Amino acid sequence: MKVLNTKMPPLPRDFYSRSTKTVALELLGQHLVHRFANRVRIGRIVEVEAYLGPHDPASHSARGKTPRTRLMFGSPGYAYVYLVYGMHHCMNVVTEPKGHGAAVLLRALEPVYGIEGRTCGPGLLCRAMGIDRRLNGCDLCGEKLFIAEADKETFDVIRRPRVGVDYAGEWAKRPLRFYIRGNPHISRP
């Protein structure tokens, strides 16, 4: 039986300072790690959505730089965590160079270590991982909340339109949701 290394290092900042679509695709299969209160929770990222910047009407940054979205315009490799519908936290990974306003939403995880509860949807993912607004602005190159490189594996990626962005017109139809084919933990097949 393989022993899980819970002391894996975070991905470097330059991983995030690239095209949002590239980062989104390369996040699939990686491990989201949260260390807190002498606990460790690890989940394999199996579904994401790309939000490309202010020109993308589905992106929070389309409304410009506000107190809520300022992190999206900041340096890459930080967590953008917000509350939706007044009750569900969602976690995004800020991408591209500072000032761009792009991020990748983490939609679903496959539990790997220390996770109780469902992880098939952004709100459930955050609840199971213990992620809330206190982690908004957390440096993903630190030791508390980060993404670590997982063992290399081969899988097929499905590309579909994002979920719940019908208000974005033609952008709602763009295939900017990516997930691992056949994974039972995705939020919507």
CATH architecture: Roll
What is the CATH domain class?
Alpha Beta
Helical fraction equals: 10-25%
SS elements, strand count: 8
Integer count of domains = 1
Structure description:
- The protein is mostly beta strands and 189 residues long.
- The chain has a single domain (13-180), classed as Methylpurine-DNA glycosylase (MPG) (3-methyladenine DNA Glycosylase, Chain A).
- It has helices at residues 13-16, 20-27, 122-129, and strands at residues 31-36, 39-51, 79-84, 88-95, 102-113, 145-148, 157-160, 177-180.
- Strands 1, 2, 3, 4, 5, 6, 7 and 8 form an 8-stranded antiparallel beta sheet that branches.
- The termini are far apart.
Label this structure with key terms.
single chain; 189 residues; mainly beta; 3-methyladenine DNA Glycosylase, Chain A; 8-stranded antiparallel beta sheet; 3 helices; 8 strands; 30% strand
